[in-house]
Every structure is written in structure tokens, then in C-alpha cells.
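Thread: "does anyone have the structure for this chain?"

Original post by V.I.:
We have the sequence but no experimental structure in hand. Need at least a predicted one for the grant figures.
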Amino acid sequence: MNGQILIGFLFYLALLAYIGWWANRYTKTEDQYFVGGRKVHVLAATLSDKASDFSGWLMLGYPGSAFKAGLGAFWAGIGCLFGTLADYVLIGPRLRIYAGKFRAITVPDYLEARLKDTTKLIRILSALIIIVFMTAYVAAQFAAGGKTFAEGFGISDNAGIILTVIIMTAYVITGGFFAVVWTDVVQALFMLLTLIVVPFLALAKIGGLDKATQVIASADPNKLHPFGGATGWAAIIFAIGYASWIVGYLGQPHIVTRYMSVEDPRKLRRPGIFISGIWTTIVLWGAFFAGFLGFAMYQAGILQVSDPEKVIPAMAVELMPGWIAGFVIAGIISAVMSTADSQLLVASSAIARDFYHKVLGKELGKKQMVNISRVVVAVVALVGLWFAISGPKVIYQMVATAWGGLAVGFGPILTLSLWWKRVTKEGGIVGMAYGLISEVIFEAKIYGWAFNPDAPGFFGTLGSWFNGVPVFFINFFITLFIIIIVSLFTKPPEDIVRLHEELFRKVPIETGEKTVMETRAKSQAENVADFLIEKGLA
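Reply from O.Q.:
Generated one for you, C-alpha cells below.
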């Protein structure tokens, strides 16, 4: 069986190698290495965005949560879907327009230019947030890869982690952003196919949905309750706890960088929302039902699984011929690598470009910067490898911790800077500093990744009110409030305020060749983008 699985997996690996070799021909400059020269088609950018987003959490963490929590875990899917839509409405088009105007390659590039920060503090804070939490995020993906290899090939988790690191780091170093984007497209399609096929095979194996629910009800009736059996305030908190992923989407550098790379900001609205919305809905449905039905199979004695987060690879091995299971294992590994590669690239840019080049002022040739970035990728991968091997290896918890740090560090300032002309660099500096320090303290020292009633002092009381809600959800709004207050007591540069007004003022309805109905049929973002392109501002 393992030999047949290996054949399917090696075929997939060969495909990735070819894409990395092809992409390397288009990776000669720093701009191409980090944002693909801003020439990425919206279809590729959108699928890459979602593949980077849903990672090993989708293929291992979320099914494992559905395995353990039952129907209530569906709230996490709802939070992810609406978070995806929020990204395309609140972040995507405006960030692409601003990035084009400032010629920004990274999120710190954009924030420094938008807030007109000459102190370099915004860039330093950005780099620290990325290095701390992105390395933790990468470690979570390595742990997910280790679990998948362990279940598919009968090796140890640590051996699987090492294999994941070797495979994934090789093609990031080789191809940069183009390799990441186009391997993500392939990986997104693998993930889609896997999460469509596995739940239907599980339904057929167990004898239908009615049979599955009967088995689950006999084991634990609360798993069939949408709030896990909770009522009143506890039910609301239960739903918030799972759906809280929504706010995190506004601050993930490895996701929003995709918007900066799109060739045309207008396409981030309708085509982007349509493609990502459909893909997201299907894969979340599939991941949830895989875990939900996997628990039924486990209770019925059909499936043997030692770790709930290994339920999908275990189902693939149980339900499919070996060579097809190899493709499914490849699909799971693809989900892991599609996020880890993007995170490594963002971490690389934070160290090589934002700190070494911009803060320290080291002037090097473009080719030298690319080479330094590749060395940094290898170093960050080694640090992530150490954390993955020594950490808890609970994917859902590891991703929530890293996701939360990035959400609080970048989400509030990024959203405000795109929509509020009065936000200031002082507000950004104070808010980002608070976000970095508070997330490290709260998540590492006080709560872990979620509020709990056993935390000391006042936080224990707060923990009892919001027991199970991720710390980052509450902290996101505290950071947002801090940035607003500080910005109101400071003054933004007048030229930046005028630029914001010019870029995003309401575009008048045109008459003549276009009817009012035709013009209004387009979104405001599309009209603004048309106007900017016509005036040569984007």
C-alpha cells in the first residue's frame, strides 16, 4: 500500500519541481521574487490567495475540530467564508491601488509610505511581528506535513516534518513568488478535488447521512447540536469562539500580498469574489464533513485513527486504492506547503528587504538581494523546523496562535489606513507595538490561544466570560480602539490626506456612451480603478 501511495505522491512532486524550474526563468529581480512583477492574473492570484490561506489547518486542523466538536465546528467555516469576503471588499482593491501608487512590494513598504513614517519604527515593528508570528505559523505547517507523512507512509511525525521542510524550502528558494503562485494554483485544485471526493466516499462507506447521524447521536448527542449543547450566553460565546477567524483575514501578510501582485485592481472585486467565494464554500463544506463523518466511521469501527487531526489521511488510506490515496496525500501536503511557502517568502522579505535593505540601508544589487532572500528562507525554515519538532503539534491551536498575532499586529492598522484618511503614524506605531507585545504576553504567558477561567487576577474573570474565545478576537478590537484614539490626538500629513481623498473620492456618474444603469452596474471600487487608470494614477 505504501509503495502505491509513494508512486502517486512522487508524480505530484515531479509536477512541483517542473513548476519551480519554469518559474525560475521569470525570477531575476527583487520585484519579481516578492510580487511576481505585479503581472499575476486574477485567477492565479485568487486561487493562490486561498491556497495560502487554508493551509494544513483546512486539511488537518479543521477536520480534526469537526471530529471532536461535531456540528458546532461549522461556525469556523462560516467565519472563514465571511472573512474571505471581507478581505476582497475591505482590503484587496484599495491595497492594490495604494501599492501601485507607492511602488510597494511588501506590506511594511505600504504602511511606511501610507503613514509617512521617516523613523523606520513602522518597518521595524512590521518585521518583528512577521518574524515572530510567521515563524510560528511556518512551524504549524511543518507539523501538519509531519502528521500527513506519518499517516500515509507509516513513519514518525518528526521524520515527516523533516521531509516537508526539505521539499517545500527547495522550490521556494528556487522560484520565489512565481513558483509560489503557480504551485498554489495546482495545490488549490488538488485540495478542491480531495475535499469533494473524500466526504462522498465516507458517506457511501458508512451507509448514508442518516446512518452517520445515528452513530454520532449514540456516541455523543451534543455533537449534533449547532452550539455543542450550550444555550443562552454560552451558545453565543460558543459560536463567536469558532467564527472569530473572520477578523484575522484583515491582517495576514501572506494573503494580502496576493492583492498587491494582481495586474488589474478592478478584477479583485467581481471575478475575485466569485472565484474565491465558490472555492472557499466547497472546501470548507468538504473539510467539515470529512471530520464529521470520520468520527462516525471511527465510532462504527470502520476507521482507525490515533489523532483526530489525521482523520483525512486515514480516510484516504482506508477508502481508496493506494495510488489514488497517494494523490490525496499529495493534496494534503499541498495544502500545508501552499501556506508555508508563502509565509517563508513573507518572512524572508521582512528580514532581507525591510530590515537589512531598508532599515540598515545596505545597498546591494537586485540579484544579490534575491540571493540573500533565499538564504533567509533557509534560515527561517530551520527555525520553524525546530519549533515544529519541539512544539505541541496541535495544528488548530498552533495556527490560531500565529493567525492571531498577525491579525492583531496588522489587521487594525491596515484596515484603518485604507479607509480612514485621519490615521497617523503615531497611531500605527503605538497600535502595532501594543499588538505585538500583548499577543506575545496573552497567548504565551496568560491564556494560551484562548480565554480560560483559570487565568490569574482580572483576566480570570474575563476568561470566565469568554471561555474558549481566541484571545486575538478581543485584542483585535482593543488595538483598533487604541489606534483611533492616538490618531485623533495627533495630526496626519496634509499631502497624505489629499492623496487619500484623490485616490478614493467618489467618481461621478458618466453620461454619453454609457448609460447611468451601465455605470452603476459596476462597483464603486471598479469605477475608482477605471478613473485612476485613465488619469495615470495607478
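V.I.: this helps a lot. Residues 3-395 form a domain with the Sodium/glucose cotransporter fold (CATH 1.20.1730.10).
O.Q.: and Confidence is low (pLDDT under 50) at residues 26-38.
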